[in-house]
Amino acid sequence: MTPQTDHTLVLGLGCDRGTALATLQEAVAQALQQLGASVNAVATLASIDLKADEPGLLSLALQLNCAIHFYPAAALAAVPVPNPSATVLRHTGTPSVSEAAALLAAGAPDHPAPPTALCLEKHKWRGADGKNATVSIARRISPAPPTPAARKARMTTPSPIPDAASTAGKIMLVGIGPGSEAHMTARARQAIQEADTVIGYVTYIKLVADLLEGKEIIRKSMTEELDRAVSALDAARQGKKVALISSGDAGVYGMAGPTYEVLFQAGWTPDDPVQVEIIPGASALNSCAALVGAPLTHDFCAISLSDLLTPWPTIARRLDAVAMADFVVALYNPKSGRRTRQIVEAQRLFLRHRRPDTPVAIVKSAYRRREQILFTTLDQMTEADIGMLTTVLIGNSNTFVRHGLMVTPRGYANKYDLEQGGDTRDGEKRGRSLSTGLLGWLDTLQAEHAEGLDIDTLAARHRLPADYIRSTLMEPVTATAVESEENA
Ligand code: SAH
């Protein structure tokens, strides 16, 4: 047992707007030093909700791999503290931020922490950036409060960690599907029912409201994704089963990736006592496609137009590549109040490669109360009502709309004459690659080359890179290759 595993300290933090991470780190290091404690003992950071977007504090929480809680001024003002300040009250509406936040975060909601629970009163530090940071430290109140003597002893001798297997929690990343109960999987419902704590974006929490009685609910805003993952790990380390809910599938622009990133940073490995389960759900592209017909029957891809975390040139290059390669595309996060031009740029890039009358379906709030479906075309799509709850499906060059259904052919018509009772077309065989499949195409290419067409002409004709054509021509079509294909 080493002090490194004793995650019991709660740090209350206050700081000026724009305080550098380095200043916060110095203040924290000094405060911990006064207690003779290591940063590994820190379980949670806490501050006032005015600071919920303070970059230094958020970076500090990430760096320490710990949760960060933000409290409203009124909640902080209600906590008796040793060092209230009139100046702090004037600026924030509470006489104490760091001391009160440390005490609040340390105490279970039904055990309001007494002021004596602070093990370090407000420590102030002015950094090289000229900004002030304050740190106060409390110890987390355990379910059975230790005697004062035991508490004092614990200050220097960390308590042994409980048996890992008996207290290990679990993180469940639950994809709840598009938003109607009927389209949520049985396992997703069960996972939410099993959970002690449910964390998610407010809208998703509302969608599963009927399952939540008696559970701890942590509602977070869209921009608090990492914070959500940190809260989940924190709760799981305390032995809780935590359901982190995402709409659609948790692995599609959802919480699965950020959660693993936070877990890896915290040193988590798959044999850690904290288990992770990802519960798949129908993503928006599955739901929206099902409502409009069968648009994804051939190769498709998803692109998010959100440039909050992805540079626009990256998004634009992907749009250009898939438009050129004739994928059916599902555009996620197509437009918001502030991001209105991205969809116009996407249209511009697509029109360079696709016909203006390419079918487009715009689906809003699929399987939710305000569901809306609109069929339009590539050149008209930006005139439609598009928002954050919309997915835009753009067809490929073969996609068509008939009787209000958007369909992308699977390719049967290339091989079978559907109007002649499904007979195979001339030169095609059932169960075999198309005559224009790889081997047939290689024969054509060899023949064209033998007729005297040079590599660049062939590259232009087949719309493929010249070096690819060259290396393909250099490799003869072997008998074994033909044979194995015949046997396939
Ligand atoms: N994890 C989610 C995607 C989250 S990104 C999933 O797998 O579906 C958020 C984007 O998803 C929205 O901007 C919208 O483009 C799409 N979306 C989510 N739910 C939707 C719904 N019910 N109807 C239409 N689009 C939806």
UniProtKB/TrEMBL annotation:
Span of domain Tetrapyrrole methylase: 170-381
One Pfam family it belongs to: TP_methylase
The organism's place on the tree of life at top rank: Bacteria
GO molecular-function terms, A-Z: methyltransferase activity
Sorted UniProt keywords: Cobalamin biosynthesis, Methyltransferase, S-adenosyl-L-methionine, Transferase
NCBIfam families, A to Z: cobJ_cbiH (TIGR01466)
Name of this chain's protein: Precorrin-3B C(17)-methyltransferase
Protein source organism: Malikia spinosa
